[in-house]
Amino acid sequence: DKIFTKMEKSVILEQAIFCGQCHGTGPNFEFDYPIQCATLYGSYQHNYLSNGGLATCQECHMQKDKNGASDHLLAPNFDDKEGTSKLLASAINLNVQTLGYQSLRKAGAYTPKIVVNTKITHSAGHRIPDG
Predict the structure, then answer these.
(1) Residues forming beta bridges with residue 99, ordered by sequence position
(2) Average pLDDT of the residues in 9-17
(3) How far are the Cα atoms of 81, 85, 100 from residue 57, in angstroms, in the given order?
(4) Which of 27, 44, 103, 124 is the most exposed place for a label (fewest CB within 10 A)?
(5) For 53-81, what is the mean pLDDT?
(6) pLDDT of amino acid 131
């Protein structure tokens, strides 16, 4: 048995294509719950980069600590108790406007009504929720 004591780091680990190898080819139907989204990497290439985005997947989803090591949390982590879901909160904007009113009040047969207008925007480098 050979014991390896040194590992060489590939240049591709810090490039978006590293993520695109899996996140651009799925979904993987051989699993009970398909784990990849075929449109994610395409969205990154055709929407994010073409609109001037410069960050790689790793720059957003694998933040480095003060020593330069990646945390590998792949934020946003929805079960996070430490706050990495702040990435999700900072990327999505929800604007809700409501108007409540009553029609036919004087006729005595009025119905309370509400109009709700919502607008959801985001600044992620890929479509949401399929990213």
Answers:
(1) 115
(2) 85
(3) 23, 16, 43
(4) 103
(5) 71
(6) 46
